[in-house]
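Entry for the shared binder. Reason: the reviewer on the internal report wants the predicted structure included alongside the sequence.
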Amino acid sequence: MNVQIVKRGGRRGHETFSRDKLHRSIVAACLSVRSSEGGAKTAANAVCMAMEKWLGERPEVTSDDLRRVATRTLKIHNPEAAYYYSQHKHIV
């Protein structure tokens, strides 16, 4: 999968979608709200699979789109972590 992610506002350029990077960020969000490590990895795998399906044949998406779709899927598996993940820009 060679989907390009347009960074915030296009000012920072593009980067290739990384399943590992998304997985790590979802696990981190889950662990931040005190989920078990197993639960965090399960949620992250579900989000990554849904994201890969959503990306499908799209050649390019924005980082905001990526976060929005990942949050929507994470909300099914861990609503508290989904809120944390969606608000990361505002919390940090």
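Summary line for the report: The chain has a mean pLDDT of 91.
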